């Protein structure tokens, strides 16, 4: 049996807390339009966690009013490897034997190993 594709993972099950554009904007101190720009520029990622839910940003992507340290570079790296936002979010929230999930490593300032593993995806 093969692993499910990243795009097929249930994001609502992987990510417990989601922020709307307005909530993310308030947390970042910017407008919802700026949040959309940040997503477009790969500083953040957004997706619909479920078909019946609006697009949002995982709450764990923000800390102290900013994107988690290392997240923008990681997202750019994953996008350069052909991932879309949904796949990026799934990869970041799945256990990648770091130990733990890449999002936890980023939030604990252990981003070097996460980026190394992401770079290996491109090979």
Secondary-structure topology with pairs:
Layout: H1 11-14, E1 18-19, H2 21-28, H3 32-40, E2 57-58, E3 62-63, E4 66-67, H4 71-80, H5 85-93, H6 102-107, H7 111-121
Antiparallel strand pairs: 1-2, 3-4
In short:
This protein is mainly α. It has seven helices and four strands; from the N terminus they run H-E-H-H-E-E-E-H-H-H-H. Helix 2 (21-28) packs across helix 3 and helix 4 (71-80) packs parallel to helix 7 (111-121).
Molecular structure report:
The protein is mainly α and about 120 residues long. β3 (about 60-65) and β4 (about 65) form a beta hairpin. It is globular. Helix content is about 45%, strand content about 5%. The protein has one domain. The protein contains seven helices and four strands, in the order αβααβββαααα. The chain starts with 10 loop residues before the first helix and ends with a helix. α2 packs across α3 and α4 runs parallel beside α7.
Task: Give the number of domains.
Answer: 1
Spans of 5+ residues with little confidence (pLDDT < 50)?
none
Terminal residue distance: 24 Å
Major β-sheet profile:
2 strands, antiparallel
Strand order of the largest sheet: 1-2
Structural class determined from secondary elements: mainly alpha
* Beta strand count: 4
- What portion of residues is helical? 40-55%
Beta percentage is 5-15%
What tags apply to this protein structure?
123 residues, mainly alpha, two-stranded antiparallel ribbon, 7 helices
């Amino acid at each position: 049996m093969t692993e499910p594709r990243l795009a097929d993972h249930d994001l609502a099950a992987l990510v417990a807390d989601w922020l709307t554009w307005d909530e993310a904007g308030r947390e970042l101190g910017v407008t919802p339009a700026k949040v959309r720009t940040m997503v477009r520029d790969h500083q953040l990622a957004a997706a619909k966690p479920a078909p019946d839910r609006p697009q949002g940003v995982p709450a764990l992507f923000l800390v102290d009013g900013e994107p988690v340290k290392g997240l923008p570079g990681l997202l750019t790296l994953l996008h350069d490897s052909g991932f879309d936002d949904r796949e990026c979010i799934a990869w970041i929230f799945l256990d990648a034997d770091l130990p733990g999930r890449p999002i936890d490593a980023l939030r604990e300032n252990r981003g070097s190993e996460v980026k190394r593993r992401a770079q290996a995806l491109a090979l």
